[in-house]
Write a structure and sequence with these properties.
Elements (H helix, E strand, L loop, with lengths): L7 H4 L2 H6 L11 H6 L6 H13 L7 H7 L6 H5 L6 H14 L5 H8 L5 H19 L3 H10 L22 E2 L8 E5 L3 H5 L2 H13 L2 E4 L9 H4 L4 H15 L6 E4 L2 H13 L10 E3 H8 L11 E5 L3 H7 L3 H8 L4 E3 L15 H4 L1 H18 L3 E3 L3 H14 L4 E3 L1 H13 L7 E2 L4 E2 L1 H4 L3
Parallel strand pairs: 2-3, 2-4, 4-5, 6-7, 6-8, 8-9
Antiparallel strand pairs: 1-3, 10-11
């Protein structure tokens, strides 16, 4: 029997659970149900499982545990539900109960309780891992084949860690190019941007300072917490949220900006609504939102000849209602041929750590996104979510699609640079899908 006295997190979702009248509309959009084809893997199935735990005392284990863990939390069910039931919140509450009962994945538990709690230790570990990856793993066909399979991830293509993190590449205070700031913003660099996709951080800082923004990058900022509480570890997530609240307070900033869709969702809503921490004492903006809606962006742009499609991250479109802004940003750049893909807001199957813990299901969900990308014939797939980028990179690699992923701000950064350069030298070589980093002058 379930220990009812210790289900208070799930019990808080009882109103959400009771609002479901089992119409089944959610089944038409659920990506995991679409692949698994079993009722219990549908949103209404998960809700009924949660209800049985609370009302019938069924233990939160076995099939119930499995169904709570194979949800991608893409929020498509909540978007379509006529009763506005937040199945994603019910699932997260169930995962929190699982974590409290010691059923958190052992690897996640080790990572969450050690390195993620200590940003310096995480950066050091990532740097050591980057050298190991570069010297021993990358290009070694045997290791590249065996390690993912040994870890239960099939033929997973791992992203490359940077040997120098973004937080160490830039000073803490970055003045605007004009020397006269119109705003002073705190830049929240998410873990993936900091540890892997440092070029996105470079582009973000250059674009903001170009637009007369003073950029403050607090050194002690920590993980936003979304991979932690999405796995059920609310305790560690609360600790991280409090660390970030303290770090960004007293910085004399007008707002916080982040180029990661998941981070902005966490900092805006989740830490308060799920964890009861916060909010921040200044507004939090997604970078696309900030550039299009908050400041008067410099639109004197250079040409960037690119054929681009766009993928909507779940945490950005459904989590924050932001989908027009990145498209407007891409379409305003001269030379960009924008092609809307079919089902651009369909979940790519990444969902943070989901693509590692549920690799096969993640790949099946992602294959539908890969088909949409292929049909656009675009050479670049733009998305402002590092988790989505990792999943799309893996799909593109294994599906043999001739495209590469790119953040919208990277294209804007190229446009500003192309405008400033003389002699018509273009930063983007559309034939090879590569940047000319020497021209970009990356640090």
């Amino acid at each position: 029997m379930a220990d009812k006295k210790r289900l208070n997190i799930l019990e808080k979702q009882i109103d959400e659970i009771n609002r479901c009248f089992r119409c089944g509309l959610c089944k038409t959009v659920c990506p995991s149900y679409e692949e698994l084809k079993i009722e219990s893997a549908s949103p209404r199935g998960r809700i009924q499982f949660a209800k049985s735990v609370l009302t019938a005392g069924r233990p939160l284990e076995g099939a119930i545990q499995a169904r709570m863990l194979d949800c991608l939390n893409c929020m498509r069910c909540a978007e379509i539900c006529p009763s506005e039931v937040r199945t994603d919140r019910i699932v997260l509450a169930a995962r929190a109960e699982l974590a409290r009962k010691g059923k958190l994945n052992i690897i996640k538990k080790a990572v969450f309780k050690t390195v993620i709690r200590q940003p310096k230790l995480m950066n050091l570990g990532a740097r050591i891992a980057s050298y190991g990856q570069r010297w021993f793993y990358k290009g070694n066909e045997i290791l590249e084949a065996l390690i993912p399979r040994f870890a239960g991830m099939g033929d997973k293509h791992f992203p490359e860690l940077s040997h120098k993190q973004a937080l160490n590449k830039w000073p803490e205070i970055n003045p605007p190019d004009s020397g006269k700031p119109v705003m002073r913003v705190g830049y929240f660099i998410g873990c993936a941007t900091n540890l892997m996709f440092t070029g996105v951080a470079d582009a973000t800082i250059r674009v903001l300072t170009h637009n007369n923004i003073e950029v403050v990058i607090p050194r002690k900022q920590a993980c936003c917490g979304i991979p932690v509480y999405s796995s059920g570890d609310y305790k560690t997530a609360k600790r991280l949220a409090k660390m970030n609240l303290e770090v960004f307070s007293g910085q004399n900033i007008d707002c916080i900006v982040t180029d990661c869709a998941s981070c902005s969702a966490a900092l805006k809503h989740e830490i308060k609504e799920l964890l009861g921490v916060g909010p921040f004492d200044v507004p939090v903006y997604d970078l696309n939102e900030f550039l299009i809606n908050v400041i008067k962006i410099d639109r004197d742009l250079g040409e960037v000849p690119m054929k681009v499609t766009y993928h909507d991250p779940c945490h950005l479109k459904r989590g924050q209602g932001i989908f027009r802004e990145p498209r407007e940003l891409l379409q305003m750049i001269p030379g960009v041929e924008f092609i809307e893909m079919k089902d651009a807001d369909r979940c790519c199957g990444g969902a943070g750590t989901f693509s590692y813990t549920h690799h096969n299901l993640s790949r099946k969900v992602g294959s539908r996104k890969a088909d949409s990308i292929r049909h656009t014939d675009a050479r670049f797939v733009s998305t402002p979510c590092p988790s989505c980028k990792m999943q799309l990179d893996d799909l593109i690699y294994h599906e043999g699609i001739e495209a590469r992923t790119i953040h919208p701000v990277e294209i804007l950064d190229m446009s500003y640079m192309n405008k400033a350069l003389s002699g018509g030298h273009k930063i983007v070589d559309c034939r090879s899908n590569k940047y000319d980093h020497s021209v970009m002058g990356e640090k």
